[in-house]
Amino acid sequence: xxLLGRAAMLLGFDIVAEAIDEHDDWHxxxxxxxxxxxxxxxxxxxxxxxxxxxxxxxxxxxxxxxTLASPPYLERLNNPSEWTRRMMPHYRGMTRGLCxxxxxxGNGMGHFGLLIRFRAAADADAALERWLAGELLxxxxxxxxxxxxxxxxxxxxxxxxxxxxxxxxDAGVDRALLVTGYLADALAQLQRGDLGLAGFERRGVAAxxxxxxxxxxxxxxxxxxxxxxxxxxx
Length: 234
Prior knowledge:
The chain has 234 residues and is of the alpha+beta class.
């Protein structure tokens, strides 16, 4: 399946305007490499919003859900670097979902993404699963302009850590659907059509939000250990 592990961490947030340039430098050159050096972290991608919605989306693909509660990960969160300590106060409206990968279909990851977050009532859960996993998701990646689709279920509560104390308490994630593709217009049409608000509301789903993104930076754990990293000769 396209996602590299059985679990994922999904983050959405804004950064105060005056700190955006430094944030992107820090996130690219320190934070992503730091996170991907933790055992079980496989790939991290930073996305930026194309319109309304949280300014940033970050997806970490990890081997197992236990990775997101592991001692090496928590040790890193409780011992942030000086640069991290400087950046954390610039975060606004952080949501952080520690999720299982319920379904992941398609080939690869497109550079454009549609993220839909929602909460399902208990009595609507089975019907929602039939619609998404049984009817809609298997066919989405074959549509023109699309590449893959990933349904995530929030599964762990994020513990309070030193990083979180600096930036403020994080909100959680119940359910999220990320559809990726190579044409932004195809995802915008999907947002207005099959994955529009009305379709979710008919199935008893609440608190639906959606936003379009473009990927800005991706790093995999295997790249950290490449013999050609930092200009090493082949």
